[in-house]
What does this fold into?
Amino acid sequence: METLLVFLLVQLSMSSGRPYDPAPGIWHDKSEARNLDCSRVSQQRAHELHPGEIPAPLARMANQESEALICTRRIMRNGERPERDEVILASLRESVGEIAEVASALGQGELNWHVDAFYPQPEVAAKISVAARTELAEQGRRVSDKVPILAAGDIAVLGRMAPKDAYPLACKRYFAQRALGENDAFLGIMLIDERETQLHAGLCLNGEWRWLR
It folds into this structure.
């Protein structure tokens, strides 16, 4: 399991010193910093995602801006991953942000959003899923940490099909088996060809699959 690090970065002059920041410096060298994947969110959003680690913003500090830095330590150190994985992860925030923006625009209304990533390396798939959930949550979407599951027979059939046919059929089966309902949206992000460095994505709504990229 990766270690989740949540740092509160308060944008105030503090008599007790600067808040903790994992950037390179006296306490952390460049190699350690390079092995953290981090994203900034508001303190309120960080509190919603990690209530036990980040407190809610104080009412008396409502006019002061504060952020949290959410970091995960890489399971494999910088340079140890396959080159394809490094390329995907280097542009992950940008590519997943674009996908989430398009998906959010198509899935209007009070929906429960489910996200899953289909990628050869489980640790990279987990990073993709977390990034997409975070992006949707920052857009004000209600995001679930659960993913729809199909029966073993369906999975066996889908595994023999080409991706362009398998994902739309899986969407229909999710809806038919009530793994997803009318108030659910499923965002799937995947690598279709293992030789690619381009993530693809699709949105499943009411049993209908739509490719986003």
Remarks:
- DSSP finds seven helices and eight strands in the chain.
